[in-house]
Structures are given as structure tokens and as C-alpha cells.
């Protein structure tokens, strides 16, 4: 066997480099943050570069650069015959962080190789900066408002709590009269569906005044035996067409329905959130139950929010109240033939929630435009004729908790700007006697009202 002689190369010791970035806890918008990059090496420093990584890592934005070749403050270590461990720290300070600063950051360090001065050894570390933002607004609304009051059918009622400006999504929950509500959670609606108005969840039977006597004799509704006929389903799968009843004028509007029971309501809760372009999240929570006007009127509901960027819960509250004592004004106060009369609801004797539905009717006849009723807070009568003198108008204000009516009478005076025609042979104006009769009738009505 012949031996082979191999050339001898002296051992080389390339410089080593380790880089690490200290992890950061979540920070709040407006705080000052310092990013710290620690690295250990026995080589000569070449450069330090900080990057902010965006678009899922596809883009790296350079935010800080340290070049040792052009630095006069950097300590030059020229002793290559002895391995020396040098520990460095590079820091980048963000004085007031914004939501846009959220994301990963990288620290890249380069040193000269110990064997060849032309080669650079690179190493890097990364850290994720989690920027939190507290919610900026919270509000409680009622879904499907304005909505009418129904005394003959149970109605589902939904409160919507909207929380904006937070990151991450906050924890939202409801309270009633200061006590947390235990609600059955519902799944999120499918994509594209609106979360403002959930589908009907509960249905109760009609009141016993609508039940045939043969069935009503078997027992109280909800207290005795169930109906032998088809019982409407209850729960999440219940679906039934709405019932429209013609309520006579003699029925007292504030009368509570007989289907109402004093049992504890069953609440259903749904929580959704959607990202916003500025990096925050809009959260919406809905609370749905079968409304009971007897126990829900004047009930205080609050929506509370917990968030890691808040030192204490944030809340908004509303009180469910039926309308009472509408205040109506009429302009002009002294209407003449041909004037445009506006009748407006200015407010109530109490704070009303949710928003009422206003319906105007003319007692015993149709409105001036021929319609049976008009919706809105204001009723406008264009160019009123003398025939409307003494007509009565009713305004019905209602929300899901109750309904109330108020009336006002229109008095129309003759317009002095309208010519009455030529005088007759006796020097009197045609229709003058008729005007005296209308004036006398008007005065009589005014005296009766006062």
C-alpha cells in the first residue's frame, strides 16, 4: 500500500455571531417603546440594520442603520491573535407608538470574518411588537326601530351594543339593573348576513281573548293543559307569520296584553366583530328576548366592555321606557284659509327609548291629501280650506313597550287677504251672513275648549 501525502492548511477561526432581541409585552397606543437587540461576537463590527416587516414578510422597511466603517465612535478592536468575546446592544426607540407600528421587527448584524477581511458574517433576530388600542366609543341601540306596539302578539326585542376603535376585540356583555345577564350564546351569522336584526327566536301564544271558548275552558294559557291543536314551536326554530289586528278606538292604548307572564325571560346573546382598515376592530353584541311590557318598562340595561388596554370597564346604558304625554305644537297658532299648517311632536313628558313610531290620523275622516294616515313626527296640511275648521287630528306615538294617543283640533279663520267679491244691491257682501255664522261657530268651539 502506498501512502498519500496531503497538503497541510493551518486552521482558521471564523468569527462567531449570535443575535437575539428581547421580547416585548403588549403595549398601548401612545406609549414609548424601546426595541433592544443583543448580540455577542468575537469579530469586528461591520453594520447593524433594523427592519420593520410588512405585508406578511414580503416587504422590509429599513428604519435604522449603523455602519461601522463611517463611525468615529465605534471601538476598533484590532487584536486578532486573541479571541475576545464582545457583547453589544443596539436599541431603537419609538416615542409614541401607533397602531400602524404593530407587527414584526428584525435586527440584522454583520461582522468581518476573522480569516478573511473581505467576508462578512451575518446573523439576525426578530421580535413582534403587539400594539393595543382601547375602544374609543360605545353605544347601545335598538334593532328594527321605530317599531310598533302589539298587545295581541309577543314580540322579540333586540338591543345592539356597538364598540369601535379597539384592538384586539373587546369582551362585551350585558347587565340588567346592574346584574349580569345569563344568556344563551348564538353562533355568528353566515357571511354577508346582517347582525343588527337577528331572526325571531321566541314566540308566545296569542292572548286568551283570541282563543276559542272550547279551548280557553281547558285552562289558563301557559298554566294548564296545552292546546290539543297544533302548538306553535318555541325556541330557536320557531317561525310564524306576524298577526295584524285592527284595534278599535275604544281600547285603552296602555292596556297590557294578557299573554304576558311574570316568568323570567330567556335571553339570547350573539357577539361578532369585523376588522377596520385602521387596524382596529368593530365589535357588535346583540341581546334578544321576548319583551314583557309589564316588567321591562323602565328596566335599565347596560352594555359593558372589558379590554386589556382599559384600567376599568367601559359602559353605556339605556332605560326602556314607553312614550308618555306627547307635546304637540301647531304653526301658525292662528290658521287662516289657504295657510300651510304644520303640526309637530316636540317631545314627551319622559325620556323615551327606543325611538317611537308616530302615526297621524284625522278623526272620522281622511287626511287632506286623501290618505288614511301619515307616518312621521310632523303632519303638514297644505293650503287648508275652510272645511277643515274644527277637524280633530290624532297622533299615536308607540314603541315596543307601549302606545299613547294625543289629539289636537284645527281652527281655521277666514283669510282677510282673499277678496270676497263685489257688493250686492243692498251694499252687503255675498256670503257675509255665512261668515258671521262660521265666526260664531268658531267662537263657540273656542269657548268649549277653554
Automatic annotation (TrEMBL):
Membrane topology: Lipid-anchor; GPI-anchor
Keyword Methyltransferase: no
Alphabetized SUPFAM superfamilies for the sequence: Immunoglobulin
GO biological process, one term: homophilic cell adhesion via plasma membrane adhesion molecules
InterPro entries in the record: Ig-like_dom, Ig-like_dom_sf, Ig-like_fold, Ig_sub, Ig_V-set, Nectin/Nectin-like
Subcellular location: Postsynaptic cell membrane
Residue stretches making up the Ig-like domain: 14-123, 326-411
Domain of life, source organism: Eukaryota
Principal location: membrane
GO cellular component: adherens junction; postsynaptic membrane; side of membrane
A Pfam family assignment: V-set
Keywords: Cell membrane, Disulfide bond, Glycoprotein, GPI-anchor, Immunoglobulin domain, Lipoprotein, Membrane, Postsynaptic cell membrane, Repeat, Signal, Synapse
Subunit structure comment from the entry: Interacts (Ig-like 1 domain) with NRXN2 (via Laminin G-like 1 domain) in a trans-interaction manner.
Task of the protein: Involved in synaptic inhibition in the brain. Selectively regulates inhibitory presynaptic differentiation through interacting with presynaptic NRXN2.
Protein name: Immunoglobulin superfamily member 21
Gene source species: Emberiza fucata
Recorded name of the encoding gene: Igsf21
Amino acid at each position: 500500500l502506498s501512502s498519500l501525502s496531503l497538503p497541510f492548511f493551518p486552521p482558521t477561526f471564523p468569527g462567531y455571531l449570535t443575535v437575539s432581541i428581547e421580547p416585548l409585552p403588549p403595549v398601548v397606543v401612545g406609549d414609548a417603546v424601546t426595541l433592544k437587540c443583543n448580540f455577542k461576537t468575537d469579530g469586528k463590527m461591520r453594520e447593524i440594520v433594523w427592519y420593520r416587516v410588512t405585508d406578511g414578510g414580503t416587504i422590509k422597511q429599513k428604519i435604522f442603520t449603523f455602519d461601522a466603517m463611517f463611525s468615529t465612535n465605534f471601538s476598533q478592536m484590532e487584536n486578532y491573535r486573541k479571541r475576545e468575546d464582545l457583547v453589544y446592544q443596539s436599541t431603537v426607540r419609538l416615542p409614541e407608538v401607533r397602531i400602524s407600528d404593530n407587527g414584526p421587527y428584525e435586527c440584522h448584524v454583520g461582522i468581518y470574518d476573522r480569516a478573511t477581511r473581505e467576508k462578512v458574517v451575518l446573523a439576525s433576530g426578530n421580535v413582534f411588537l403587539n400594539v393595543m388600542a382601547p375602544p374609543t366609543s360605545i353605544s347601545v341601540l335598538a334593532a328594527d326601530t321605530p317599531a310598533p306596539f302589539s298587545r295581541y302578539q309577543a314580540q322579540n326585542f333586540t338591543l345592539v351594543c356597538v364598540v369601535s376603535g379597539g384592538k384586539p376585540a373587546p369582551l362585551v356583555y350585558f347587565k340588567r339593573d346592574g346584574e349580569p345577564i345569563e344568556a344563551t350564546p348564538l353562533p355568528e351569522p353566515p357571511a354577508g348576513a346582517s347582525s343588527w336584526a337577528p331572526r325571531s327566536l321566541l314566540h308566545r301564544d296569542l292572548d286568551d281573548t283570541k282563543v276559542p271558548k272550547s279551548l280557553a275552558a281547558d285552562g289558563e294559557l301557559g298554566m294548564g293543559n296545552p292546546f290539543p291543536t297544533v302548538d306553535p314551536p318555541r325556541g330557536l326554530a320557531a317561525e310564524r307569520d306576524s298577526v295584524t289586528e285592527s284595534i278599535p278606538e275604544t281600547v285603552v292604548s296602555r292596556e297590557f296584553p294578557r299573554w304576558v307572564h311574570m316568568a323570567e325571560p330567556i335571553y339570547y346573546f350573539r357577539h361578532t366583530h369585523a376588522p377596520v382598515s385602521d387596524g382596529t376592530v368593530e365589535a357588535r353584541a346583540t341581546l334578544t328576548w321576548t319583551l314583557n311590557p309589564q316588567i321591562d318598562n323602565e328596566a335599565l340595561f347596560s352594555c359593558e366592555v372589558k379590554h386589556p388596554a382599559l384600567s376599568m370597564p367601559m359602559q353605556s346604558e339605556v332605560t326602556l321606557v314607553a312614550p308618555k304625554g306627547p307635546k304637540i305644537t301647531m304653526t301658525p297658532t292662528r290658521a287662516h284659509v289657504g295657510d300651510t299648517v304644520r303640526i309637530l311632536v316636540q317631545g314627551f313628558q319622559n325620556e323615551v327609548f327606543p325611538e317611537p313610531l308616530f302615526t297621524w290620523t284625522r278623526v272620522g275622516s281622511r287626511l287632506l291629501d286623501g290618505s288614511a294616515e301619515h307616518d312621521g313626527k310632523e303632519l303638514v296640511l297644505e293650503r287648508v280650506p275652510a272645511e277643515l275648521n274644527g277637524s280633530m287630528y290624532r297622533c299615536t306615538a308607540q314603541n315596543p313597550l307601549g302606545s299613547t294617543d294625543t289629539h289636537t283640533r284645527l281652527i281655521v279663520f277666514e283669510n282677510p287677504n282673499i277678496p270676497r267679491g263685489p257688493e250686492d244691491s243692498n251694499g252687503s257682501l255675498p256670503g257675509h251672513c255665512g261668515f258671521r255664522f262660521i265666526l260664531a261657530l268658531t267662537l263657540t268651539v273656542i269657548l268649549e275648549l277653554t
